[in-house]
């Protein structure tokens, strides 16, 4: 029954020993080396955790009659269910305390919840939901999946709490293993079952559905779903649980707004969420928001700020013993070092992150990190190693059906292979497959302009200029709809303005020449060639953007728009 040990308080409650009787018995057991007490006073817990010798519990159990065993099993399940409820709610206020207990008691929780599901007890699904919270924190995905499989058919009607919890656990498990489309279908079914009446269940289901939409590249639909969730939340009593749910919706809305390039509104959502976490004293919630604000800073090229946010989040997740969240923070720090071309530091972060994900069996998220290890390998000239990482990630993408990441993996592998001799046709096939996937998704979320750009480069090498020209036109059209374009152009506003003024002002042009020469020395040769064509009177967008990547041609287009508006 007891799985290797137990809190002394739980042991007393289940066995119904008096403290006096137990004290005498414990002294004898400790003297024989059958139990060892671990003091937990540093956590504010008066009772110790008792570790059992492997022979102790089986020996005692074998001496009991079957009715005695059954009574103890019932009390074991009931007591651990009550403990799971307490830890579930206490975790929001005192996570270090609850993680310390739940980590030690996890074998008992799993034994009890499995027994409860098997016995068909009316609290079994709620018990599973409470235990799942800590399984998620500790990254124990296989245990979560096993429990979900056991409880899948316990629903007792579309309007029951058991049905809601069972279906929600199923959807969450599907989402956590990268099966986003299946999870989306589950959450849509839940919403249909719940109806349109505002409720806590409807609110959190909209949040979960929004995550599915974002994971499959449906950013507009994700944002609309999060906003609907916030509307529902506003109609309900503002309990601490509801405030926490609102904070989660705001964080997830901030994530999708960042994807869409709407950075100002993303920051507003993160700040709203952070304010709620601080009001509630939710340390973990603060860490989550800090991490996402780091990502916002990263895409806006505020790298020092990004690292600071990630380091703060990482420290908290490590203290909370959350390996999954820790691996995510390590991954994001890797992205920041990659952006600043600190290859060794980036690779170190990525490898640590991948190791944690692989150890937890979370290959869907590990593939994201392998993808970046491929980029690092490519940028440092290790092309064979890069190809191996990309193919490893692609294999997982195909198995999980994660279209967003699969498209990105295929595009990057195509870009790598096109640089190698005699492999242009293979690169073309990979890029075509990526494009066919991308065209079914939100163009902004998938950054479809990059795929068009790669296809243009391949067409150039294949001697197909008309095809390359059309791909570049499509790339420019897709990029023009990106909400983050204005922010990215803000870094080049001085150059753009100077070129526009230099068109009709010889003195400004003369002052501009040293700037252009310096940019050539920094690797901007193609861009400067096009700028000089503009200064010499060329206005044909196709000619000027020929051979430019999307970061360069957006500058050229901004200059042309500036000239037209004068």
From TrEMBL:
What Gene3D superfamilies does UniProt report for this protein, alphabetically? Tetratricopeptide repeat domain (1.25.40.10)
> Could you tell me which residues the TPR repeats occupy?
247-280
Q: Which UniProt keywords apply?
A: Repeat, TPR repeat
Q: Which residues form the MalT-like TPR region domain?
A: 295-494
Q: What InterPro entries does the record point to? A: TPR-like_helical_dom_sf, TPR_MalT, TPR_rpt
What PROSITE patterns does its record include?
TPR
Q: What is this protein called?
A: Tetratricopeptide repeat protein
Origin organism is Pseudanabaena catenata USMAC16
């Amino acid at each position: 029954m007891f799985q290797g040990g137990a809190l002394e308080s739980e042991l007393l409650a289940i066995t119904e020993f008096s403290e006096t009787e137990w004290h005498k018995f414990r002294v004898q057991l400790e003297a024989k080396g059958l139990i060892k007490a671990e003091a937990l006073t540093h956590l504010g817990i008066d009772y110790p955790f008792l570790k059992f010798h492997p022979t102790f519990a089986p020996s005692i159990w074998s001496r009991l009659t079957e009715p005695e065993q059954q009574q103890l099993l019932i009390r074991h399940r009931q007591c651990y269910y009550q403990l799971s409820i307490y830890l579930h709610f206490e975790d929001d206020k005192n996570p270090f305390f609850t993680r310390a207990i739940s980590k030690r008691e996890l074998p008992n929780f799993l034994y009890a919840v499995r027994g409860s599901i098997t016995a068909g007890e009316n609290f079994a699904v709620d018990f599973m939901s409470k235990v799942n919270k800590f399984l998620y924190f500790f990254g124990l995905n296989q245990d979560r999946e096993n429990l979900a499989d056991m409880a899948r058919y316990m629903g007792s009607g579309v309007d029951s709490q058991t049905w809601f919890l069972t279906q929600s656990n199923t959807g969450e498990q599907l989402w956590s293993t990268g099966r986003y489309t299946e999870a989306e279908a589950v959450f849509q079914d839940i919403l249909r079952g719940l109806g349109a009446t505002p409720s806590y269940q409807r609110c959190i289901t909209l949040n979960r559905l929004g995550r599915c939409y974002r994971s499959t590249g449906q950013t507009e639909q994700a944002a609309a779903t999060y906003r609907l969730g916030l509307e529902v939340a506003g109609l309900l009593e503002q309990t601490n649980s509801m405030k926490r749910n609102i904070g989660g919706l705001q964080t997830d809305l901030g994530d999708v707004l960042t994807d869409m390039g709407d950075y100002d509104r993303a920051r507003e959502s993160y700040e709203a969420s952070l304010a709620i976490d601080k009001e509630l004293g939710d340390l973990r919630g603060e860490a989550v928001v800090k991490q996402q604000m780091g990502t916002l800073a990263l895409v806006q090229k505020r790298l020092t700020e990004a690292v600071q946010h990630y380091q703060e989040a990482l420290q908290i997740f490590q203290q909370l013993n959350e390996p999954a969240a820790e691996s995510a923070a390590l991954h994001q720090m890797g992205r920041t070092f990659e952006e600043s071309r600190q290859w060794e530091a980036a690779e170190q972060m990525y490898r640590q992150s991948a190791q944690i994900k692989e150890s937890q069996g979370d290959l869907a998220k590990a593939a994201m990190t392998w993808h970046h290890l491929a980029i690092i390998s490519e940028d440092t000239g290790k092309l064979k190693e890069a190809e191996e990482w990309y193919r490893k990630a692609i294999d997982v993408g195909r198995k999980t059906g994660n279209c967003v990441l699969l498209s990105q993996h295929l595009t990057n592998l195509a870009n790598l292979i096109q640089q190698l001799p005699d492999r242009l046709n293979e690169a073309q096939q990979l890029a075509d497959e990526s494009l066919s996937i991308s065209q079914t998704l939100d163009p902004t979320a998938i950054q479809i302009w990059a795929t068009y750009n790669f296809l243009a480069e391949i067409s150039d090498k294949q001697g197909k200029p008309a095809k390359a020209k059309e791909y570049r036109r499509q790339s420019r059209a897709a990029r023009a709809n990106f909400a983050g374009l204005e922010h990215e152009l803000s870094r080049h506003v001085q150059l753009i303005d100077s070129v526009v003024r230099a068109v009709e002002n010889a003195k400004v042009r003369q002052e501009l020449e040293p700037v252009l020469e310096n940019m050539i020395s920094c690797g901007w040769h193609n861009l400067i060639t096009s700028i000089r064509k503009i200064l010499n009177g060329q206005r044909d967008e196709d000619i000027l953007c020929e051979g430019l990547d999307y970061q360069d041609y957006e500058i050229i287009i901004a200059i042309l728009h500036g000239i037209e508006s004068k």
